[in-house]
Amino acid sequence: MFKDSCVVMVDMQTRFLESFEKHILNELIENQKKLLLFCSKYNIPLIVLEYYHLGKTIKKIEKNFSKISSVKIFEKFTDDGCLLSPIDDKKRIITISEVFFSSLGKKTVIFAGVNKSVCVQQVAKRMLQDGHTIATSLDIIADDKWVMKHLSDGYGLAEKEEIKNFWAKNGILTNHVSDLIEIITN
Q: Count of domains in the chain?
């Protein structure tokens, strides 16, 4: 399964990470580094989605990109990542499906990033609609304090259990990135 996989890193930008408690953010980053090491070891392509005008992926994550054979960084203009603009290309607008079907040909999409109840889930839904298998673990996706506050305020965002149910029903969900990597490589 891993030869047919790619990893999508969503919104690991300072703007989204500012409100995380330090120990939670450090744990999230360490687990994501394990996923990036997996990408390096097995030549798994990495797609990095950065929300338009909100800065670059944080250095603690970005410094691991050089170890990965294929990294593509895109600015996204919508939560679901439907419209992208390649940072290293001619700034033309493309769809996320075009990236996967045309350039990568990958079927399984492994997700990491923030905010899991909004952007990560919306990109995953888009990929699911387009016929991809989706996968993640609970220790490589997270919500910041703003999203958590609005979850409890009934802001219309998915409830915590709804998120787990979405992934469990529609894809592969594990508690730990090591378990996810084991499933993907077997």
A: 1
